[in-house]
Each structure stands twice: as C-alpha cells, then as structure tokens.
Amino acid sequence: ERGFGFIQSQDQDFFVHYTGIESSGGFRSLADGEEVEFDLEVDDRGKQRAVRVTGPGGAPVKGTQRQREYHGEGDGGDQGRY
How do residues 55-68 score in pLDDT, each as one tens digit? Predict the structure, then answer.
C-alpha cells in the first residue's frame, strides 16, 4: 500500500522498501506474518534495511493480492483501475 514496511526478526524491526523484494511478478509485496530471508545493508544515513528479500530457501515470496477498485459505471465489462 505504502511501498515500504518492516520485517521483524530477532526482536528487531528492519525497514524494507518494495524494491528490496525479489519478485518475478510486477507487484512486489509481503503478506503479514510471511516467513522470509533477507540480507541487511546500511543506507546513506547509517540505518540498516532489508534487501534481497525472498521466501525461505530463496523461494519466491507469497505476497498479497493487489486490491482492485471499481470506479465509474460501465456495461458490466471488466472496468476499473489499480
């Protein structure tokens, strides 16, 4: 939704931006409570962030389904926007 979030690991929260999620699909996301593996990198301000985020063993992340919203009227066709 916002493009970023936090991964909790070993009683610490690590910032993760959607660009740090390894995904073969177009929409990158993580599901609440999803188990992941990641590397840590230090950003320009000296803070750690999660990068190269994958599922266990390097598997693809499961992520969440992107919600589709309907706006406007139509003829019953598949209209809407992401």
Answer: 999 999 998 876 55
Answer whether 50's CB lies under 8 Å from 43's CB: no
pTM of the complete model: 0.74
Query: What DSSP line would sit under the chain, residue for residue?
Result: --SEEEEEETTEEEEEEGGGB--SSSS----TT---EEEEEE-TTS-EEEEEEESGGGPPP---PPP-B--S--SSSS--B-
Q: Are 80 and 66 in contact (CB under 8 A)?
A: no
Query: How far is residue 53's CA from residue 40's CA, in Å, rounded to a whole number?
Result: 10
